[in-house]
């Protein structure tokens, strides 16, 4: 009884609804007031149940509001949704039952899929373990073969060592110590033998120096000319020919400078 009163406090009745409206449309129309839980439509009337009473009271202000092509009337519902449309409730219950059955089927499918996945995972793990065991066996076999090869190689080395003739170590005999030789007896000095007299060395003959013939004295004038030439050459005194050559070189330089200056003036006047 208390549950029915609580439902009536949060349930409204809507009248004069257009035939084009649906339960979903009506539920969405009043959702602005608050969370609406359910709606049942029958002809031009509908009942809307809200989550709480605070959402149902603002919905009363929608009276004379236009929904589609009609003005609706909103008031508190004198009956619950189950009382307003029992067949709808039955349909809803059937729908809920169908949903539960469908959910149960989905749950069963999910469990079966999970079981298959777990079985597949177990098979995969078993295969990986078998592969790992096979790899371990191969590694053990390889290690055993390597050990056998090492043992065989060691045996071959021992056989080779035994077959080879042993070589005695060579010990060097110490050299005998020689006794010191006895001192020789003194030998008498031989008698002096007279050596033949040596002849004195003969000095080589040195030719006498030839007599130096003094040149005949030249004439006084020739001597003076030669002395003057030697003096000029030694003191680097310019000769008259050198002065003429130097003067000619200076003139050439002046001519070149003058020609260059004239050429410069000509070029400057042109530009």
The biggest beta sheet is recorded as: 4 strands, antiparallel
Q: Helical percent range?
A: 55-70%
Give the termini distance in whole angstroms. 127 Å
Q: Return the average pLDDT rounded to an integer.
A: 75
Strand content: 5-15%
Account of the protein in words:
With 271 residues, the protein is an alpha+beta fold. It is 56% helix and 10% strand. It has helices at residues 2-9, 23-29, 53-59, 81-84, 86-163, 220-235, 240-270; strands spanning 11-15, 36-42, 45-50, 66-67, 70-71, 73-76. The strands form two sheets. Strands 2-3-1-6 form a four-stranded antiparallel sheet. A two-stranded antiparallel ribbon has the order 4-5. The longest helix is centred in the middle third of the chain and has 78 residues, at 86-163. Mean pLDDT is 75; it is low at 189-201.
Summarize the structure.
With 271 residues, this protein is α+β, with helices and mostly antiparallel strands. 56% of the residues lie in helices and 10% in strands.
């Amino acid at each position: 009884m208390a549950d029915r009163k609580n439902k009536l406090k949060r349930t409204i009745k809507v009248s004069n609804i257009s035939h084009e409206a649906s339960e979903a449309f009506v539920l969405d129309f009043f959702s602005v007031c608050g969370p609406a839980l359910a709606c049942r439509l029958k002809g031009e009337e509908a009942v809307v149940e809200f989550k709480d009473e605070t959402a149902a009271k603002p919905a009363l202000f929608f009276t004379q509001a236009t929904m589609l092509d009609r003005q609706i009337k909103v008031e508190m519902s004198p009956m619950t949704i189950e009382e307003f449309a029992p067949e709808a409730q039955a349909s809803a219950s059937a729908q809920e039952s169908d949903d539960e059955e469908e959910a149960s089927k989905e749950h069963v499918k999910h469990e079966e899929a999970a079981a298959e996945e777990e079985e597949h995972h177990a098979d995969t793990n078993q295969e990986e373990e078998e592969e790992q065991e096979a790899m371990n066996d191969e590694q053990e076999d390889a290690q055993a073969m390597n050990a056998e090869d090492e043992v065989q190689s060691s045996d071959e080395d021992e056989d080779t060592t035994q077959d080879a003739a042993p070589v005695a170590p060579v010990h060097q005999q110490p050299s005998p110590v020689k006794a010191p030789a006895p001192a020789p007896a003194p030998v008498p000095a031989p008698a002096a033998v007279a050596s033949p007299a040596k002849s004195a060395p003969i000095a080589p003959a040195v030719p006498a120096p030839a007599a130096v013939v003094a040149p005949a004295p030249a004439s006084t004038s020739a001597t003076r000319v030669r002395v003057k030439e030697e003096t000029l050459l030694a003191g680097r005194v310019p000769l008259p020919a050198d002065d003429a050559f130097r003067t000619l070189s200076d003139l050439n330089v002046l001519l070149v400078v003058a020609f260059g200056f004239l050429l410069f003036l000509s070029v400057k006047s042109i530009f």
